[in-house]
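Q: I have 140 residues here and want to know how they pack in 3D. Can you give me a structure?
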Amino acid sequence: MTTDHTQETPLVRLRAEGGVDEETLAYARTKIDAVVARPGLPAVTGEVRLVRAAAHHAGRPWSATADLRIEGRTVVVLAEEATGTEVVDQLQDRLRRQTDKAARSWDKGHRTTVPPWRGGGVRPVPAARPGDPAEDSRTA
């Protein structure tokens, strides 16, 4: 039996707070989908939040936060700008860079290593076998 793994609903949820217009939301959905739906990228889930501040005196009233999970790795990206399209473009650039980094490190098996003072990086010395020349020199 074959199954189709294409999904009708996006795995990355887009949320808006404040006075975010539909045009900016559609633009954001297009840009986010372009980043997370690239070929070769593992499954991506999570949430992107667009916020427009109500204060008119704010220098950068638009902010965006992305909290994504890529094959067990968490990617968090923040952006602040003066307009909705600028914040979405900045978010897209940062998301692309961070998702590429997470995907590359996952493919190559790079993991954070445990420091030696926590028991990492210490390799046990193999026990000498009977009849081994190193063992004979220690017992002589």
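Q: Anything worth noting?
A: The CA atoms of residues 74 and 86 lie 24 Å apart. Residues 1-9 have pLDDT under 50 and may be disordered.
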